[in-house]
């Protein structure tokens, strides 16, 4: 097995491209679009969890509201990691508020009832789990760094869903 010398030579040049090398392949733009849609999803989730954190009311709400804030911060960290990867791939992270809800896989929610908040967040986490699972399959071995990032985020989303399910049945 021999490495592609032409690709190695190209990697030695074009230093202004940073992490983008010939092995990034023709699917780089498609991956950037998937990541930007995921970025929108994470940002909508931050907004939904923050709204629920500030408006949760009732006997059991204090502890759950605190967890909503923890989830909001974790979703924000996911958004940061996605934006960073988009930049590494030579793209531009799309933070445009005008298109967030159109590009997001998950919905915003302004429920006032604690149980409905939990349910809305569980639905959103399940949607995120499905979206990340599909993206991981689509990316496969085309971009192992992005795949590992998505797998890591997927693990967090699965933890969130399990926690929310436990609250819903409690």
TrEMBL record:
<dbReference type="InterPro" id="IPR009040">
    <property type="entry name" value="Ferritin-like_diiron"/>
</dbReference>
<dbReference type="InterPro" id="IPR009078">
    <property type="entry name" value="Ferritin-like_SF"/>
</dbReference>
<keyword id="KW-0560">Oxidoreductase</keyword>
<keyword id="KW-0408">Iron</keyword>
<feature type="domain" description="Ferritin-like diiron">
    <location>
        <begin position="25"/>
        <end position="170"/>
    </location>
</feature>
<dbReference type="InterPro" id="IPR002024">
    <property type="entry name" value="Bacterioferritin"/>
</dbReference>
<dbReference type="Pfam" id="PF00210">
    <property type="entry name" value="Ferritin"/>
</dbReference>
<dbReference type="InterPro" id="IPR012347">
    <property type="entry name" value="Ferritin-like"/>
</dbReference>
<dbReference type="GO" id="GO:0004322">
    <property type="term" value="F:ferroxidase activity"/>
</dbReference>
<dbReference type="InterPro" id="IPR014490">
    <property type="entry name" value="Dps-like"/>
</dbReference>
<protein>
    <submittedName>
        <fullName>Bacterioferritin</fullName>
        <ecNumber>1.16.3.1</ecNumber>
    </submittedName>
</protein>
<dbReference type="InterPro" id="IPR008331">
    <property type="entry name" value="Ferritin_DPS_dom"/>
</dbReference>
<comment type="similarity">
    <text>Belongs to the bacterioferritin family.</text>
</comment>
<keyword id="KW-0409">Iron storage</keyword>
